[in-house]
Amino acid sequence: MSIAERASPVGRAVAVFCASGPVPDEYLALAERMGAAIAATGMSLVSGGGNVSMMGAVARAARAGGAHTLGVIPKALVDREVADIDADRLVVVDTMRERKQLMDDAADAFVVLPGGIGTLEEFFEAWTAGYIGMHDKPLVLVDHDGFFAPLLHWLAELHGRGFVSARAWAALHRVADVDAAVAHIVAAYGPKPTAE
After folding, report:
1. N or C: which end of the chain has fewer CB within 10 A?
2. 139-142 and 69-74: which strand pairing?
């Protein structure tokens, strides 16, 4: 059985990309709302396996709501004692590339919350992979309080100048809050599977 098959015992699995460094409290609250919303819709969480900042807040809130959580973390970060040891399943890998591949494989959808360069790397990789046909999973960017507005302005300019295709631009779903993000994923897949 693959890690993807083990990731989500019920419903769909959502990978959340977000900050793992210090952030203002409003972003921790946003992450908590994301975790709670995932749990409320019967989905499970795929995370980067850290217990700090927004990454940890999403996972704790998801578990508090009854969601299954899968964390994937490189050994170097485990050694720094930032691993989410309370995850329902914590997979330790050697490299960041392995981490991203396992997260991508386990996820049925991707949600991007505010974050730094690591979050942006994950966002662009998931978006590009979808565009070139490596997956057909929903990708949702949560533009909380205009956090991504400068990036979206630049991407819109690239789209207007022909550097981002219409198909790629359409594949990026942009919302302002977590409820809209989860609603988009639910609409893409329909109601959660029922137990037989």
Report:
1. C
2. unpaired
Angle at 50 between CA 45 and CA 54, to 5 degrees: 75
Confidence (pLDDT) at 148: 97
Q: What is the mean pLDDT of residues 27-45?
A: 97
3-state secondary structure of 143: coil
**pLDDT of 81 over the 90 cut:** no
Q: Of 97, 94, 7, 80, give the one whose Cα is nearest residue 47.
A: 7
The residue among 79 and 150 whose pLDDT is bigger is: 150
SS3 (DSSP) at 190:
coil
On whether the pTM is more than 0.85, the answer is yes
SS3 state of residue 12: coil
What domains does the chain contain, in order, with CATH numbers?
A: 9-188 (3.40.50.450)
Whether 49 and 91 have beta carbons less than 8 Å apart is answered as: yes
DSSP assignments along 71-120, one per residue: EEEEHHHHHTT-B-TTSSEEEEESSHHHHHHHHHHH-SEEEE-S--HHHH
